[in-house]
Design goal:
Elements: H1 2-39, E1 43-51, E2 60-66, H2 73-83, H3 87-103, H4 105-115, H5 121-131, E3 163-169, E4 177-179, E5 184-192, E6 200-208, E7 215-218
Antiparallel strand pairs: 1-2, 2-3, 3-5, 4-5, 5-6, 6-7
Helix pairs in contact: 1-2, 2-3, 2-4, 3-4
């Protein structure tokens, strides 16, 4: 009798733990779903390739657009679910996460952690700490803006809406490279910016084995100090929404 009582108690405890675990998973799922409902389908991908003629280049480039910059981790996760399964979307997510890091380091760090391989994260954050340092003549708070359509030094780096980037495969490295260390195949891309004399900036992404999302594995070219806003620019930088 006592033995049966103990067994029943153990079964009840196990069921209680199972229910708690189910509730936690459900709450987490609902949190992301709620963020998706609130944030909306903000990411758009044009995969067919558009001959842009950017910088006298005839290379095809894909476009990725977002309506605004997320403000919370849940919103970023919703955007990642929408864009992160493509290399081009991963590149947009990197720029978005960088801007979020500029605004709020704790939230931005978690977003960068989600979109980068563990081997690349510290390089990104240490560099951003320099490029976003307030009151420093070296700082470029408008760095991310420089990658969006319409933003240039002569107009205060104020982009058009929706925020759109142009991405293409790096013509110097057209083939994927197998990486044992990263457990996946590295793809070499470039993203366009009017903020540099060399406007196509290199970035590497990888989809690691078993992972549904692409992650940035190397990207020093995208956080190099961009040009200052022209002293006689037509406008000041307004920031990003």
């Amino acid at each position: 009798m006592q033995k049966q009582f103990i067994i029943n108690k153990l079964n009840r405890n196990a069921m209680k733990k199972k229910n708690i675990l189910f509730t936690l998973v459900l709450l987490l799922t609902l949190g992301v779903t709620a963020a998706q409902a609130q944030f909306g389908p903000v990411g758009r991908m044009v995969r067919q390739g558009v001959r842009q003629g950017i910088n006298n280049s005839t290379a095809f480039s894909d476009k990725v657009s977002v309506e605004r910059i997320p403000t919370t981790l849940a919103e970023f996760q919703a955007l990642q679910a929408e864009l992160g399964t493509t290399p081009e979307g991963c590149i947009m997510l990197q720029l978005v996460a960088m801007e979020m890091y500029r605004r709020d380091k704790s939230v931005g760090l978690e977003c960068l952690r989600l979109n980068n391989t563990s081997t690349n994260l510290s390089s990104v954050t240490s560099r951003l700490n320099e490029i976003f340092r307030e009151g420093d003549s070296y700082a470029r708070p408008y760095l991310v803006s420089s990658y969006f359509d319409g933003a240039k030094p002569s107009n205060g780096y104020n982009p058009e809406k929706p925020y759109t980037i142009h991405v293409r495969r790096n013509p110097a490295y057209p083939n994927d490279e197998r990486s044992q260390a990263l457990r996946g195949y590295v793809k070499y891309f470039q993203v366009y910016s009017e903020g540099y004399d060399t406007p196509w900036r290199g970035i590497e992404v990888v989809q690691q084995q078993g992972d549904q999302y692409y992650r940035v594995s190397n990207c020093p070219n995208i956080y190099v100090q961009c040009k200052e806003i022209d002293f006689d620019a037509s406008d000041n930088w307004h920031g990003l929404e």
